[in-house]
Amino acid sequence: FFSFFVAANLQLVDFVPMMMSSRWVILGFSALAFQVAWGLQPSRSAPRMVVKIHGSRSSRSPLVNWYCEEQQIPYEAVAARPSRHPFGQVPFLVDGAVEVFESGAILLYLADKFGGGSGTTAEDRAKYAKWVVWANSSLDPICFVENDRGGVVDTRLDKPGRVVPLLDQILGKSSWLVGDSFSVADVAVASYLNYVPVFFPDVDLSQSPHLARYMQRCAQRDAFVAAFGRDHADRVLAAVENALSSPPAGANGGKPKLFGIF
User: How far is the C-alpha of 85 from the C-alpha of 81, rounded, in Å?
Assistant: First the structure.
């Protein structure tokens, strides 16, 4: 039936040689008529659902907003409470029937669903998932030292240690953490790094120039400013500018590293 229907229209069009474009008009009409005859509906793309992010500007929630801004994921920032988070914390994401808590888990979910990682296989996913998990588990306690009540009292980002110099070396070889492009890994890691100057404006980044420039690159992104705010970005940029214009600690009479070896 379909072959005969299309063939009949092709023959009809052949009788109108001066109306070359009419062939495609009639073919299009034929296809539509075929859909109607068989009870089919013309395809329409489903509207993209808006994810809801429970949080606040003073929490880690903006790092999730940042990723949504980068990937142009439609989202709505809603009040921290009430929510269905089992522990009443933020950020907490709701995507239809899906509920996700913990900032790293939320980032990985969004990367899996909306893209922005570095691939679709388990091997590709591992390239950025390891950085997201590392940011939550290892970088967090370096950036923020808490007291027994959970209050942030200090940072170890500019203290003697092993991890920060190694991260500085990594960022000295590549502008981004995964390959040559910005990814969800950078959202996870840079968010923690760029919170430090907000809590500790006098943080000394002079020992880590590559790290400082990385923080600068991220804070200059439009999506970062949209998520965290202009004031937050300016504090990061001020700390970086101060670090890059100052001699490293231990030089010209500055503070030496502990024992000179760590």
Answer: 9
Distance (Å, whole) CA 136 – CA 151: 17
Phi, psi of 145, deg, nearest 5: -95, 125
Contacts of 39 (CB under 8 A, 6+ apart): none
Q: Which residues in 98-110 are b (16+ Cβ under 10 Å) and which e?
A: eebbbbbebbbbb
- Rounded CA gap, 161 and 36, in Å? 70
Give the tokens for residue 18. Answer: 């001066």
Task: Quote the crossing angle between the two packed helices 230-244 and 209-219, to the nearest 10°.
Answer: 150
- DSSP assignments along 91-150, one per residue: -EEEETTEEEESHHHHHHHHHHHH--SS-SSHHHHHHHHHHHHHIIIIIHHHH-EE-TTS
Q: How many other CB atoms are found less than 10 A from the CB of residue 4?
A: 8
What is the CB-side half-sphere exposure of residue 138 using CA atoms within 13 A? 11
Enumerate residues 6+ apart whose C-beta is below 8 A from 167. Answer: 208, 211
Chunk the chain into consecutive blocks of 10 residues (it has 262) and report each block's average pLDDT, rounded to whole numbers: 42 41 44 44 56 92 97 95 94 97 96 76 92 97 93 94 97 96 97 96 94 98 97 96 76 40 31
**What is the distance between the alpha carbons of residues 191 and 182, in angstroms, rounded to a whole number?**
13
Per DSSP, the residues of 141-164 read HHH-EE-TTS-EEE--TTSS-SHH
